[in-house]
Amino acid sequence: METLMMFARAFAVGGLICCVGQALIMHTKLTNARILVIFVVSGAVLTALGLYKPLVDFAGAGATVPLTGFGYSLAMGAIEAVNRYGLIGAFVGGVTRTAAGITAAVVFGLLNALLFKPHMK
Amino acid sequence: MSRQPYTPAQYRRVVSRATPGSRMLRGYLRAFWVGGTICCLGQAISLWAEGLNLGEITNPMFTTGVLIFLGTTLTGLGVYDRIGKYAGAGSAIPVTGFANSVAAPAIEFQREGAVAGVGARLFTLAGPVLAYGIATSVVIGALYWLIRGWLP
Predict the structure, then answer these.
(1) pTM (two decimals)
(2) What is the complex's ipTM, to 2 decimals?
């Protein structure tokens, strides 16, 4: 039952965050790239203000899988690294925490270009 | 003489399907359920990762990695773009959409070469996201370093 509720919360919160993106697509003229940038930056800022962590605790993957969660990891990583290493941590933490995701995207992206031919549009 | 092919109820349905309001509602519904489903997939992967005894920090990394693998592979197979046409932000906002934004131009621009094509285009969308995301994290870290003495 607890597991089921966890999935329900992830579904609802993740779905709502995507609806915010959908609103930006439908009601503004923002390009896709701008929307993604807005999501990552606002995720990081909300985390710094202490507002995003409660959402992650509540919704799990519902808050970490959308790109705001990428911003969350960047900000959490930077803050934790400052606690550990001082000012230089600000330059270390964000990328360290997100390294797996960034590297996976680059490596699997490259592999894809080797394996697949362009699709007809 | 049945010049009216629709009953009033059917007619209302046809009209509402054609008006922008309901098209918007449909956009939200699609974004909601597809986005929610991708997040549930992430939740399932993270549960699976708990069984592999990964730590509190490495579990989300693993989950993100698997989702990105799925995103790039589905992009290569041409499936993700079709999901994207249906779901809009529902497939663009999750991290699988980020993976798609990396893999799609890499595949698309193969003929421009391995370096200027694949290597550079890989970052068409990921570049801005990483640039501003990383810069924001540095600012946040530096501000935190400045004020943490006063924080409770």
Answers:
(1) 0.89
(2) 0.93
